[in-house]
């Protein structure tokens, strides 16, 4: 998450600190370019699978880099926001881990997906919030503090919640080793995030220098993961690509829309609703791809690869649309 999204704004909505204003511009450029990088990576993985497929063993380490970068952006005040707004954060967490897993299961049933694709779609739904959700909330003029709090908590509880949800919802499709999945999430998500947080606390000056580069580092690494995942299932993409794309578009659309609706039903203000739309609708597809590749098959990771592309495109479009709409002055119930 970018520091610019945490700064104070001028009446015109721009950060007051010039350095943070520059970082804000970097965020906008990264969000614009990111989908193009992912598309290019997907095409490369499909056209030259022999180049990327052998790199499959590196996917967990690549995800660890992304999560370490996420940890570098976290600060103690981000976690203090949880105590200050327990109702809003709890609503966001519950909405995230109810709407997306449930929608994934329903769509898999409705489209009669084959077992590996169904498990892959459900796995995406059971993942924690996406690493770009905070930036999307910022660009949409949403409640970034709430977005960061929900994303942080959803990531920290993922080692327990994600395997249990996958076991419950996808156990009828394939054999699920929830215990092994817990260990993998601890190693590839929780430990790197904690390491990044500690680095931020004890190496603050050094970390501050590299913060502007983090969006690009994450974008490049996620794109490489997509290339590897696509390469692993390149032979089946032509047959499965259309139905997977439809499933992902529906899944992401339900998440964005129902996330906003959850905030409305919870009587949160419009800024908070916008934040919840992205916290529910955007998933950590890199984690889902890693788990699918390690525990199932490259085909099961295909929904994650498509989701990684699509949710950044749809998120940028929705963020731009919301940014042009005036905030509704509704009282917040925290």
Which helices and strands, and how do they pair?
Elements: H1 18-47, H2 49-52, H3 59-73, H4 76-84, H5 86-110, H6 115-126, H7 133-139, H8 144-156, H9 158-170, H10 178-202, H11 204-210, H12 214-232, H13 234-265, H14 270-281, H15 285-295, H16 302-323
Helix pairs in contact: 1-12, 1-16, 3-10, 3-12, 4-8, 5-6, 5-8, 5-9, 5-13, 5-14, 6-9, 6-15, 6-16, 7-8, 7-14, 7-16, 8-14, 9-10, 10-11, 12-15, 12-16, 13-14, 13-16, 15-16
In short:
With 334 residues, the chain is mainly α.
Question: Key terms for this structure?
Answer:
globular, disordered C terminus, single chain, 334 residues, mainly alpha
Structural write-up:
With 334 residues, this protein is mostly helical. Helix content is 77%, strand content 0%. The protein contains 16 helices and no strands. Helix 5 crosses helix 8 (144-156), helix 5 (86-110) crosses helix 14 (270-281) and helix 12 runs parallel beside helix 15. The longest helix has 32 residues, at 234-265. The radius of gyration is 18 Å and the shape is globular. The model is unreliable at 7-20 and 330-334 (pLDDT under 50).
Q: What fraction of residues sit in β-strands?
A: under 5%
What are the secondary-structure elements, in order, as H or E? HHHHHHHHHHHHHHHH
What is the average per-residue confidence, as pLDDT, rounded to a whole number? 82
Q: Could you give the count of β-strands?
A: 0
Please report the distance between the alpha carbons of the first and last residues: 23 Å
Radius of gyration: 18 Å
- Report the principal-axis shape: globular
Catalogue the unreliable spans.
Answer: 7-20, 330-334
Main sheet overview: none
Oligomer: single chain
Instruction: Quickly give the structural class.
Output: mainly alpha
Percent helix, as a range, is: over 70%
Tally of individual helices = 16
